[in-house]
Amino acid sequence: MRFLEDLLDNFWNAHKNNAGVAYVYGHKLSIAWIVCVIFAIALGFVYQGKVAMFRGIAEASETIISVPSATEIVKVHVVPGQEVQVGDTIVEINRPDLTLRISEVTRELDAIEGRSNLSSAEIDQKVAEVKANLETRRLALNVEIRNLETEYQNNKAISAKLKSLSNSKSSSDGNDAMAMRIKSLKNELALATKSANEQIALLRGSGRLQKTSGKSEAENLKKELAELQKQQEDLIQVAKENWVVGDVNVRDGEKVSSFAPIVTLTHKRPTLVRGYINEQIYQNMDVGETVKVTTLAGTGKAVKGEVVGLSSRIVPFPTRMWKMPELPVYGREVTIKIPEDNSFLLGEMVSIAEVHGKILVKDGKK
């Protein structure tokens, strides 16, 4: 800047002397433009690769304990801020509807098994009755058939000894009638046997159908019973990870509606950072990009995080990030995953910087 002032002073001195004004003016103006271009290029080199920075709030993933139906709190074993280890009991819950349904399903299973056994016994009894009736009928027909066959053979022997034509014709007619009766009885026996076998097959098929239907119904009830028993085991909520108790929203003996939050659990250390970029500055940032997260003061060990989410809309900044309480700030939300091994406090405001700087686009112009 001092150099430009000296050039202007020289220009005005030359103008006052009225000697070579046009030449001096053109020469000095060219030098001034060259200096401006050099200055702009220098600024570009200074700011090229400068790490873009913005702020965020360190948070931790949470889990909420709730149940899908109205419950009664038996006992709460934790208090807000308490650290719980794997296997620690958090809360005991009672669900009267669950106990009632387990009893109903158990009774239905017993009833299905009893009906199945009874049906099998009834079918076996009916099959035995059909077989007994068939055997009785077979014995009676066989006796009658044997008697007729014996009589038929005797008549044939007698008719062979008779020489008279008249007697022979009469005997022949009698033998023919007896033969037809024997044939009719044999057909009746075959028909009775066929009918009995069909009845037995029908009874057996009915038994199998009842067993299949009862088995399918029993399997469905068993699946429901297993699910109910699993829900009953979950009535005693046990920590499956190391947590810090956030909120306890119930007391011993209190009745809670379905899906109401009972206890909120969070990790001891932040596991993600929710950053906010001012809406006047649009940053070329992509999911999967690496960033550096530090405290606002820049003290302590910085950690590297990974961008796992970018909002597709402008959202308001948290109130604590407003510079003036009456002037809200808006921007783009960036979700960053950080390792749990860090020194940040839950809810702490942090500074976020790109590991590899990119040129910011401001107001739509580079």
Concise overview:
With 366 residues, the protein is α+β, with helices and mostly antiparallel strands.
Describe what this molecule looks like in 3D:
By secondary structure, the chain is α+β, with helices and mostly antiparallel strands. The chain contains 4 helices and 16 strands. α1 runs antiparallel to α2 (21-47) and α3 (96-161) runs antiparallel to α4 (165-233). The chain is elongated and about 160 Å long. Mean pLDDT is 77; it is low at 1-5, 18-28, 43-51, 165-169 and 357-366.
What's the helix count? 4
Roughly what percent helix? Answer: 40-55%
Structure summary, number of beta strands: 16
Separation of the first and last Cα atoms: 25 Å
Instruction: Give the overall shape.
Output: elongated
Mean pLDDT reading: 77
Widest sheet, order of strands: 1-10-14-13-12-15
What value does the Rg take, in angstroms? 51 Å
Runs in which pLDDT lies below 50 for 5 or more consecutive residues are 1-5, 18-28, 43-51, 165-169, 357-366
**Beta content:** 15-25%
SS class:
alpha+beta
Written as H for each helix and E for each strand, in order along the chain, the element string is: HHEEEEEHHEEEEEEEEEEE
Characterize the largest beta sheet: strand count, sense, and whether it forms a barrel. Answer: 6 strands, antiparallel, barrel
